[in-house]
Design a protein that fits this description.
200 residues
Length: 200
Amino acid sequence: MDQEIEESIQVKAVTKDEILLAALKLFTSKGYFKTSLTDIAELLGLQNTSTIYHHFKDKQMMATEIYINIFDSLSISIDEIRRKNQRSSEQLKSITELLFRLTDEAPDVIRFLFVLKLDEFLPDEKPALETAAFVKVFKIIQSGIRNGEIRDIDPQLINAYFFGVITHTLCSVLTGVLSKKADAYLNQSWSAAWQTIAKR
């Protein structure tokens, strides 16, 4: 009976979101396959995994929910950026600023997006470039080409050139290759990325 009461208290004390944050932290630091439910429970200060099982049947279910939450949030943010900015250049700059801010404030989110090989443990989910968020980015690029802001070449190449600069910079910050916070490299990275695609 005492154990049931204790487990009930643990269920109340640790929320689903807290479990997901702990899982995200461990997936991006240890790796998905090296993270166990016991590891997640320990990080949360739980004596066992029963509270986790109350919310999730396995760690793949957690990874799927993390994936959905991150890409849904990113999609909503991109919608807001598109509403506030008319030009493709302004929209891409705001998206760049968002990614750099997340790198400093929520680095595990950016590690999940750009460092982890999601297809290895989430084979049934869409590749990142096929998610609603990145489809919207692709539409921004296409609009920029039509409006004469962006070079008239294959939009997939434009996407690769632009985000190649951005993601490489962010990954270099996250791995310590670059020693300062991401914000310190924002203006230089934006300028370099934009110059690779801007119509001259």
